[in-house]
Each structure stands twice: as C-alpha cells, then as structure tokens.
Design brief:
The protein has a domain of 105 residues: Immunoglobulins (Immunoglobulin-like). The chain is of the alpha+beta class. The termini are far apart. The strands form 2 sheets. Strands 1, 2, 3 and 6 form a 4-stranded antiparallel sheet that branches.
Length: 178
C-alpha cells in the first residue's frame, strides 16, 4: 500500500501544479509587479478654506404658531439679526406678508407690522392681530433689515404660517396617494 501512494504522489503534484498554472493563466494573474497608484495633493489653491465662510450678516425669523386654527387671532413674529455672528442692536426691521402661491401682499398685516428695532440681544418682536385670512393658503414673510452704513439686508421667505381648517368635510375625498 505504501508503494502505490509513492507512485501517485509525483503524479498528483504534477497535476496540481498544472492546474494552478492553468487557472492563473485564465485569471490573468501576472508575475510582473504593476505600477502602484499614487495620490497627489495640490496645496497651491490659496483661496480655499476647509470651513465655509459665513455671510457677514445673518437674518432669521420665526412665528409663535405656524398653523393657527382660526382665520382671526394674534401672531408674534420674532426676527434676529447678527453681524459677524454676534447679535446686533439698532437694526431697523420691517416685514412684508404675502401669499406664497401668487405673491400678492396682505395689506392688513403689512400696515399693522410697521417697523421694529433690534435690541441688545439682536431680536425684534412684532405683535400682530389678523382677521379674515383664508384657510389652507400659506402666508410667507419677507424680512428687511436696515442697519446704518450697510445696504438693506433682505431675507425673502424668512418664515411662514398657514391658517388651517379643522372642520371635517361633509364630502371627504380620497387622498392623492391612495
């Protein structure tokens, strides 16, 4: 038994070597080293920064209730004004209310809003009453800040609200999504 396995061992080794060489030829393996890929970093772009540059002036706004449920009520609009990422006092703030769909102004709110001045904390607060606003039509608010020595800073559609109707419909319709 020992004698027959000695005769088969060289044949098995030869067959294994032939199989390995045949597979390596099929797989396209090469015995020559390939060129290594390299990455180059170009440091000659002096105007790029890893951190984006913040705008010099920032204006933000929000309302105390962005979905009131009555077409008449009260609304508070908060506006904050920053220069160089610090709150700024003395900015004269005005608001422009318009319907989002057609851009038409809402004269009652625009007359009542007037102008407010930002305090030491950078905030200007508008207390407004409204009546007769239509349901389910978004109202956008543009903010303009006049600050001495700079052109007016305008933030279109800074915030919005929409009076919503909670009255159930007598004839409900299927939702578009099914």
């Amino acid at each position: 038994m020992n004698h027959s396995s000695r005769r088969q061992l060289p044949a098995l080794l030869t067959l294994s070597l032939a199989l390995m060489l045949g597979l390596s030829a099929c797989l396209g393996l090469s015995t020559t080293p390939s060129e290594q890929p390299t990455i180059s970093i170009n440091n000659s772009l002096p105007n790029l920064s890893p951190t984006p540059t913040a705008p010099a002036y920032l204006v933000g706004a929000y309302v105390n209730n962005n979905t009131p449920t009555s077409s008449s009520g009260n609304l508070i609009v908060y506006v904050i004004f920053h220069h160089g990422q610090l709150p700024q006092a003395g900015g004269r703030v005005s608001l422009y209310f318009h319907y989002n769909a057609d851009g038409g102004g809402i004269s009652g709110l625009n007359r009542e809003a007037g102008t407010q001045t930002t305090g030491a904390d950078g905030y200007a607060i508008f207390y407004l009453g409204y009546s007769g606003l239509p349901y389910n039509i978004p109202v956008s608010i543009d903010v303009t800040v006049h600050f001495t020595g700079t052109p007016d800073i305008v933030k279109k559609n800074a915030t919005s609200f929409s009076v919503i109707d909670l009255t159930p419909s007598a004839n409900p319709s299927a939702s578009p999504g099914g």
